[in-house]
Amino acid sequence: MNFNHILFVGPQDEKGGIGAVLNTYRESMEGFRMLSTYPEDRQTNVYRFYFKQYLKLVKLLLFQEDIKILHIHSASNGSFVRKSFVLFMAKAFRKKVIMHIHGGKFREFYQASKLKTWCIGSILGICDRVICLTDEWKELFQKELRLKNLEVVLNPVKAFPMVPVSKQFNQISLLFMGTITENKGIFELVQYLKQNPYFLSGKLKLFICGEGDNKKLSQYLTEVNSIQHIIYAGWVDGERKCQLLQYADVFILPSHYEGLPMAILEAMTAGIPIISTRVGGIPTVVKPRHNGWLIEPKSIEALGPILEEIMDDPSIISRFGRNARKDAETFHVTGIVSQLTNIYNSLC
What we know:
The protein is an alpha/beta fold. The protein has 15 helices and twelve strands. 45% of the residues lie in helices and 17% in strands. Helix 2 runs parallel beside helix 3 and helix 7 runs parallel beside helix 9.
C-alpha cells in the first residue's frame, strides 16, 4: 500500500522517542512524507522554524489535494500547543486528523488545572481519532478527558537479531539507552552501582547510550570510572546499536516518567530481559517473573534483590529473554502498520 495520502507531523529530531517512531514508519511505509514542526538543531530559532513550516503546511494543504489525513504526533506542553495549531489548520481545509499522544507526562500536563483539562479535552475531541499507547491511557482519556474517539496503537519496532545467551557468565552487562536526564534515572543508577558489591567486584558492567546532560553524567562517571566498568557510548544507531543489543545481557531503564519507551521495545525484540519502573505504558509490556523485573520509580535500592537473583541464577537471563522476544511480536512494525492502515481506511 502507498501512504502518500497521509501527511505525518512531528519533530525533525530522530533521536527522541517520537522521532524514532516516525523513522520506523518511514522505513516501512511506501510514499511516507512528513512535515517537521520542531528543529533537530538546538541552535535553530524554534519560533522561526515553526512559522516557516506552518506556511509550508498551508501550501501543502492548498495544492496537494491527495493529502487526505494528517497523522500528528504530539507530546505535552509546547509540543501539544504547536500541534494544536496544525490541527486547526487541517480542519479548516476539511482534512481528517489523527492526534497520536506520546510522552509520560501528558496526564500531569492536562491535570494542571480544570481549565486546562477542559481545553485539552476539547481540542482532542475535534480530532477524528486520538491514538494512545496503552489500554491504561485509553481508560484515563475516556474517564478524565471524556473522549470517545480513541484507538490504542503500540509503538512499532523492527526485529533485531537475537543472539543465544551463554549459560556461563563471568560478568553481567547492563545496557541503558535513553536521554541523559534526571527523569530517566540514570544518575541514581550510577550512584547506586558504585556502592553495589557485584559492581565493585567486577561482576557487573554498565553501557550507557544516549545524549542529554553529558556534563553532569561525566561528573558522576569521574567518581566511578576508576573501576573501569561503566562505558559511555554516546548516541548510537544502526550497526552500533545492533552490536550493543547483541552484547547486552539485561536492559535497564529506571525512569521516573514514560510513555512507552522505544528502547525497551527494541531490547525485547533482541531477546533481552528488562529491568524498569512501573510508570506509563511500561507495565503493559514488561511482566515481572516473565520477561523482566519492575521497581517503583525513584526506588533504585530495589535493584539489590533483582541483581542478587540474576547473579545466583544467570540462566534466568536466557529464559526471560526468550519470553521478551516472543512478546515483542505484538509490536513488530508489520502488525502496527497493518493496524494503522485499517484506521486510515476507516477515515477515508
